[in-house]
Amino acid sequence: MSTASARIALVGNPNSGKTALFNALTGGRQKVANYAGVTVEKKEGMVTTPGGRTLSVIDLPGTYSLRARSPDEEVTRDAVLGQLKGETPPDVVVCVADATNLRLVLRLILELRQVGRPMVLALNMFDIAQRQGLRIDLEGLARDIGAPIVTTVATRKRGIEDLVAQVEAKVEALAAAGDLDVPNTWHEPSPAEIRRAHAEAQRLMKAHVRPAERPDTMTGKIDAVLLHPVAGLAILLALLFVMFQAVFAWAGPLMDGIEGGIGALGGLVATVMPDGLLQSLIVDGLIAGVGSVLVFLPQILILFFFIILLEDFGYMARAAFLMDKIMGGAGLHGRAFIPLLSSFACAIPGVMATRVIDSKRDRLTTIMVAPLMTCSARIPVYTLIIAAFIPNQTVWGFASLQGVVMFGLYVAGITSALAISFIARRLFWRGQVEPFLMELPTYKTPDPKSVLRNLWQRAEIFINRAGRIILPLMVLIWVLSTFPYPPEGATGPAIDYSFAGRLGHLLHPLFAPIGFNWQMTVALIPGMAAREVAVGALGTVYAVANAEEQVGTLAGALSADWSLAMGLAFLTWYVFAPQCAPTLAVVKRETNSWLWPTVMFAYMVTLAYLAAMGVYHGAVALGWG
Amino acid sequence: MDHLTPAAALAADPQPAQGEVRLSQARLRDRGVIGSVHVRPDVDHHGLSAEELERRLLELGFVEGAAIEVIHEGAIGRDPIAVRLDDMRVALRRHDAADVVIRLDARSAAR
Ligand SMILES: Nc1nc2c(ncn2[C@@H]2O[C@H](COP(=O)(O)OP(=O)(O)OP(=O)(O)O)[C@@H](O)[C@H]2O)c(=O)[nH]1
Ligand SMILES: [Mg+2]
Predict the structure, then answer these.
(1) What's this model's pTM, rounded to 2 decimal places?
(2) Were A245 and a residue from A5, A403, A620, B65 both cysteine, which residue would form a disulfide, CB within 3.0 to 4.6 Å?
(3) The CATH number of A2-216 is which of 3.40.50.300, 1.10.3130.10, 3.40.30.10, 3.40.50.720?
(4) Which of residues 296-325 of A touch B (CB under 8 A)?
(5) Nearest-5° angle of CA B93, CA A36, CA A218?
(6) Domain(s) of CATH 3.40.50.300: residues in chain A
(7) How confident is the model at residue A247 (pLDDT cuts 50, 70, 90)?
(8) Predicted-complex ipTM score
């Protein structure tokens, strides 16, 4: 039985470094960031011990107690107690503690001890503890809690072998002893029991931990500025503003480079390959279609660069603090801020992150408005239209007008999310939001290597999407816009006779009231799979249509073909439209019903249609038609 | 038992003893130790039972004897607040802090 696999669960307070440790143990690439509530799902990985044993390691959401209050904490409770059907408790529990913040985890350890599984305590962030001159009597503490202690620095992969060895020793002891007959005596503690456990934890602290000689004073100093009632809010706004300016200003040269490269590639292929179908497929379908999406890689990486830095630094919880009153005014739970912020990347992790919200109604409200936040898949659409219709000029002496418009679109998303949740509260879910308690983590200097690794991962995801979803869709769109050929003697453009052309013309009456032409209408359909495909689809449709004359960029083609009012209507549509099937699928999974994705789809389409119509007619009235 | 609205409850908060202050009414820089955490059952805690709110506060370290200091306030209505609680920092809304009573240290009490 020496190679039998054993199951190990990583349990601990939020933000103690469980996922960093999981990644160090298993070589995994799960998300690590400096705020509570990053992990909301159970993740499994493997590690092979020097003795050749395979251990299955599970990473779990952080919690202060096994008495779960929110869906993410339920995941942890069920995993530790082995309560789900077909699941057994883990063989060994590894409790992961932030060595500089032991009081609460000591109380959790007392709870974990009642579960009766063998335990190892990983004293993580030991580098910080040492820097602060924190003295912990490891032997005494280990004796008192009845579990071996290993000091670790998860982010530097220090102490990992030691931890594996201690876990393996526990697994071996288990195997030798046969089945464990320590009964599980855990039950939900009453307030009196929690107080008693606190007293015991306090006694352990007094006995074994001497206060830090050089406690962290940085965090207090930084907070004095960042949480200042006036300066703090100003800094938050300035940060967001700079972020969207940078997305435009810094990405420009890189995008020109990529665009030039793609154009050159298309030109090269066109000269090398004989004219014909295959050339059209490769040049118009693949290179123009996928290329028009790939161009946006720099912008997406710049956006993520900012988000990753802020997350690793520890700013997210501060931003939530500063925004709390406004969010609360709109009827949103305080913890809704981080899920909404994650939705800037993509609504899917955003919807998942709502698991940290305990109240069902509060969670549902957040889920329903999360897709209104501007996700990174909208960036290609926004940028394309902005580049085509908004002149590249400087306003107020320093800001780029295109960046300001981009910022405005983000603000439109945020404001509408707040407004919708406010209305939903008023109409359906009257009453106050639930209490909200949130730990503010200590600031940490982001590690350049891990920031780069994260960015690389983002680039991979984006390119992967381009290859796996966008590329096949582009081929499909090319086929639809090329076949069938026009009949003999036809006079109009060939594309009008293709499937795409016919479909576009067929559906066009539906979208004519909001100013869309048939090409825009066609682009909406594949855009359902992934928003940025709409850009690729426009790329292909216009490339096929303009195959004869050599037009420049897609933006050029659009500004020649669309009026400003049409461009604005298209932008507005994308602020609100539920143009993303995967998001609807996640909402179905997280709410366990088709009702909510249906409601979401209906309200967002209605909003998009009405808003686009208003903007179009408004713009036409202003003479921009 | 009839439930008070939050605003009425705040107004009706019984005044704590001399040298003590409810965390919901504490001022910036007020410092001391937590004297008691007894969540009153007759106040509306947003659909949460009093015992549940008490357990949540306790689990996050709001427990009798813990050192506490108000370190930040929000811009609007001085809400929410951030406190230093032993070795950690916690943010919460004043309304939820009404039943955490702080025994102020001499300096804070004299302000
Ligand atoms: N200096 C230092 N930082 C660490 C160490 N381990 C983790 N961190 C940092 O601590 C923060 C939290 O790490 P995570 O692994 O996301 O914590 P978690 O316990 O998984 O958090 P939740 O999933 O939210 O419960 C991140 O910013 C990490 O980079 C460590 O040993 N030393
Ligand atoms: Mg985690």
Answers:
(1) 0.87
(2) A403
(3) 3.40.50.300
(4) 317, 320-322, 324-325
(5) 85
(6) 2-216
(7) confident
(8) 0.87
